[in-house]
Every structure is written in structure tokens, then in C-alpha cells.
Amino acid sequence: MARTLSDLTGHVVVRLAVLPNPAAGSLEDVTGGSTLTALGNELSDLGNPRNARLVTTLGQGDLAAVERRSPGRQVRRSLAQYWRIDVGGLRASPVEVARRLALLPEVETAYAERAVSLPSPRASRPGGTGLFRQRYLAPAPVGVDAAAAWARLGGRGEGVRLADVESAWRETHVELRRLGLRLVAGLNDKDDADAVDHGTATLGVVAAADDGQGVTGLATRLESVHLASHVVDVSTTEVAGAVTAAARHLRAGDVLLLEVQRGLTDPILPTESEEADLVAIDLAVGAGITVIEAAGNGGLDLDLRPEPQLHGGFDSGAVVVGAARSAVVDGVGHRRRADSNHGSRVDCHAWGENVTTSGYGTLPVGDGAEDAMYTAGYAGTSSASAIVAGVAAVVQGMARAAHGAPLDPVALRDLLRDPRNTTPQVPTRTGLLHHVGGMPDLAKLAVAVRALP
Q1: Could you give the domains of the chain?
Q2: Tell me: the pLDDT tens digits for 434-444?
Q3: Burial bucket for residue 303 (CB in 10 Å: 0-12, 13-18, 19+)
Q4: Cβ atoms of 348 and 424 closer than 8 Å
Q5: Are 159 and 404 in contact (CB under 8 A)?
Q6: Helix %, strand %, coil % of the chain (to 5)
Q7: Rounded to an integer, what distance in angstroms lies between the CA atom of residue 423 and that of residue 400?
Q8: Residue 127: pLDDT band by 50, 70, 90 thresholds?
Q9: Three-state DSSP class for 36?
């Protein structure tokens, strides 16, 4: 299906063939010399549209420091090469402008930037009724068996830092106020009520306080929790900038959760489908940080997509998470949720519906104040990714306790997608599998971590 205008931000992202002077504030500064004259001429023909570095969340010195810390596992490009050009007011479409710019010798690639959205279903306020039953924490095959990890040293995420990349949170919620949340990038976009509830629900799944009330997170003893918003202003989002800024505050063995997807309409894809986001993820993984990434709610087979990073052409190193139904089929496992993306790039899955957590307000507590709202209907690859992020933090905590050091991110990913450590995915009624991997089983993962050399 052709991309709609609402699917695009009105910006074109270009990757320059040269690394520009750190002092350059615009492409006009960069093209003032003789080496980028074709690009300068093209910008002039376009009416000199507004442009800026793709990553403004970090200064060039801080960005260089992050890149020195991690030269990249596979991609080995600098985010300083990426610039964003505002072409929303031009007669030519962003796609057409990107094609023109990509032909220039000074430009290695150019693409129309796609909008960022929340990887949860379109229902603005997830429903669900009932008690505070977090059945996704139950033993397999129903859930991920949190109790099996909690009984182990380090099994509540001790010594692990978490960063959540999305756009808004209610940091005063009763489940979150003890976490000492710290905003390290962008704006906490509290004008977007859905985004506030989404972020609040995410952190409830991962780290809600174990206080005997409401809900309990998977990793209740994290060392710290950092918030990195991709919202820079009303018209600009920086996923790559938020990832890189978050990585500055994390160490090897920590967990970075990417609660974003690209696209508002078909196709809806994982955020690493945007090249700059892929580079940022690669940098984080190269620094030893485990990145958990939502597969997205497009219902697509990623193996059929043209983006090579979605089917083996590149490997960001992130753990890509699909979503499944909550019901157990024949006592074996769960079926893929129909709107979850799938394919070989998806590493594992977790519950994509009926997840009880903080936020939204369909399960008010006490006087129904916003800081004591809950839902029993958090869903999509959003809820699934939050569950797997909690699992990853718990596994790293157990690894630190057992061996004195965390696991390499790719080694941890291998454990999470190993069939020996997961509850299997169950085919649909028609026999189709549509791969989203297995659901992590912490009882098996605890044994696997202990057995590592």
C-alpha cells in the first residue's frame, strides 16, 4: 500500500558521504566548501528548506563520546553524518525529494522519515475488567514465571539500570514514584494523555513497586530508571537521539526499552527500519546494553519487507519482541496476536493483551485519582516488549549475582530466543505459524544462566 501523507513527518533524512565539521549548524554551512557543491545546488533549487542535524538531543562532543565508547558492531556509521531536511512545504513529496537527493554524489542515502507511534492497539484507553491478576507473571505455559527468578539472587534486577524510550509518563503514579525516575532526553509530553498512560503502563509492567498493593513489576529492585523521550518539540521527534542519550546513562549489562514503532498506517514497522535508528541501536548494543525493541503492530511478515535490516541484511543486535494472545492453547503455548509483526527478525514474544498494570484508569483504586489508576487491558507489542524488558533485567541481575558480570547483549538475546528456554508459539487454527518465537520462561532461564561458564 502506498504511504499516506499522514504516515510521513514531512522531513527527509540524508546521510552525508563525509563527516561534517562539528561546528556546522546547517547543511548550508557544510556545503559552503567545494566538496558538497551538488548538494548545495540542489538545496538552493528546493528553496533552501530548513534543515538541522538529525541528533540534536546530544551536543556533538557528547555524541562523539558515545560513539568512541562503542564503534558499532555492524553498521559503523556516525550519527553526525545524518541530517534532517524539512520539505513539508514543498510541492514535491518527501519521497520524491529523497529520490533526488539520493542521486547526489555527496549523499550516501536519503529517505522520507516516517512518523513515530506507540506500539499498542488503536484503542485510546485499553479496557479489561476484573481483579489485579497479573497472570503474565504465572509459571509457564501461562506466563514467564516471575517467582522462579525472584527466588534467586539478583532475580529482581539488582544492579541493573533501565532506560525507557517513548514520549510521556506519569512519574507521580503510586507504582512509580519510588523509582526515582529521571528524564535524560526530550520532553515529557504530558499534553498527550494516551502517551502518558502508555509510559505509565510500561513502567508498571517492568518495575512497579513491590508494596503489596496494586501491581508488582518484574524487576522491582532496579538500580535506577531513566526516561528518554523522543519528543523534541511539537514537530520533531528524535528516536536515534533519545536512544543515544539514554545510552550515555547506561553501562554494559543494563537494559534499554524501545517502546516505539514507525508508521501510522500500513506499513507499521519496528523502529530499526529507519536507518538512523538502526545505527543508534547498534551503538547501544556495542556498548554492552541490551536493547528490547517492539516488533510493531502492523500484522506484517517482516521477511517480505525491502528493508534489509528486517530480514538478515543487517543485525542491530536488539531483541525484537512480538505479541501473542493471552489464552493458552491445549496447555502448550500462545498464538500470535493477529496485528503483531512477525518473521525471522522477531526473537521472542510475550502477552499482547489483558496485561494488568498501572495507568489508563479502567481499574481505579480508592478515590480514583489519576495517580492510582490501573488497567487490565494493556496490549500489543507494547505490553509484550515491557514484559520481555523486565525478563531481560532479571536475567542480567541473576547473571551478575552468579558470575560477577552481566551477559553480552547478543548472548542474552540467544538465551531469550532459544527454544530450550521458552514456551513455544502455537500455530493458528488454520495451521499457520507466522513466527514470533517463544515466550521466555524464567524458570528455565535461571537454570541456563547458572549453568553458564
Answers
A1: 5-114 (no CATH), 135-451 (3.40.50.200)
A2: 999 999 999 99
A3: middle
A4: no
A5: no
A6: 30, 20, 45
A7: 25
A8: low
A9: coil
